[in-house]
Specification:
The chain has about 325 residues and is mainly alpha-helical. It folds into 2 domains: about 5-190, no CATH class; about 220-300, N-utilizing Substance Protein B Homolog, Chain A, CATH 1.10.940. The chain is built from 16 helices and no strands. The chain is elongated, with a radius of gyration of 24 Å. It starts with a helix and ends in a 12-residue tail after the last helix.
Length: about 325
């Protein structure tokens, strides 16, 4: 399921497009926000399907070796442990995954070079070599090697994969890490006696989407008012020099502080400070931290920000 942090990032990015693009209707930008969120969920299925394509490539290599005019003993009697992987069987045969992949026209058939690169990186890794050399076969071991594949630098830090994903959808920019976390969580939930893959839902509950769309709508409609509020708490700093993204992060954080009385203030501040480390100007997270902390303390003191329940300060 998509995390609240990812939803907050999607809101900030959509707010950027809304204000910079001078979009008049919030409803139009809300549709774009939902599309962006849905695309992030699609990437989860796209990444799940990657290991299926890598396994198919491995099968092709084995078949090519067997058909050689003068095959080696290893080619005639290959180690088939990876292509017999029970977890990959289950992913490939899952009706839920197949239906989703087909309905959204996902897959990797147009990128054979990427699949070959993923396969080569995997076969050269120590986790794969240890898996293949171990004569014991178990579902737990099958899960472990697939999990190691998705957690490897060859996947997480692949420039070729990043380029391909950008070509497939510009909406997938920066979503790979979140999708991989969801894939790994899914693999960790797999059990030998299950008949299908325990696919994660898009949201933990509909409250998550309600949170995202409400946060965006109120941040967009009250943007100028929130900018003015933020500027009151900027001490010894030229307002004109503050980066636009810094302003967006702080005004969105202010919106959440004011509009969601059930979310602890500390959670809100921690989330947006963390977001600023990746999406704002260098060193801005320290500046943003100071502004948000001062703003939170004063606005809670004067009753502008009200939190209900214990432990929400």
């Amino acid at each position: 399921m998509l995390s609240r942090r990812l939803l907050r990032i999607k809101v900030v990015k959509s707010l950027y497009a809304h204000i910079q693009g001078e979009v008049e209707k919030v409803e139009v930008s809300l549709k774009n926000l939902r599309y962006s969120v849905d695309k992030a969920y699609e990437l989860y299925f796209q990444m799940l399907w990657l290991i299926v394509e890598v396994r198919r490539y491995a099968e092709q290599r084995i078949e090519i070796g067997r058909r050689k005019q003068l095959p080696t003993a290893e080619e005639l009697n290959p180690n088939t442990k990876f292509i017999d992987n029970k977890l990959i069987d289950r992913i490939e045969q899952s009706e839920v995954i197949n239906d989703f992949v087909q309905a959204h026209r996902l897959g990797w058939s147009a990128y054979p070079e990427l699949i070959r690169d993923m396969y080569n990186a995997m076969t050269e890794s120590s986790y794969y070599k240890n898996y293949m050399s171990n004569e014991n076969r178990s579902f737990k071991g099958d899960v472990a090697v697939v999990k190691a594949f998705f957690m490897s630098e060859a996947v997480e830090d692949s420039e070729m994969l990043e380029s391909v994903l950008e070509e497939q959808s510009i909406m997938w920019n920066d979503d790979l890490g979140a999708a991989l976390i969801m894939v790994v969580r899914t693999l960790e939930d797999c059990r030998a006696m299950q008949e299908d893959i325990p696919v994660l839902p898009e949201f933990k509950s509909e409250d998550d989407w309600t949170f995202a769309k409400t946060l965006f709508a109120r941040a967009a409609r009250n943007y100028k008012e929130n900018v003015a509020t933020v500027e009151r708490f900027i001490v010894n700093w030229d307002v004109e020099r503050i980066a636009f993204m810094d302003n967006l992060i702080m005004t969105t954080a202010l919106t959440e502080l004011k509009e969601f009385d059930e979310i602890p203030a500390k959670v809100t501040l921690d989330e947006y400070i963390e977001i600023s480390k990746y999406y704002s100007s260098p060193g801005s997270n320290v500046f943003i931290n100071g502004v948000l902390d001062r703003m939170k303390n004063e606005l809670m003191a004067d009753g502008t920000i009200v939190k209900t329940g214990r432990g929400l300060q």
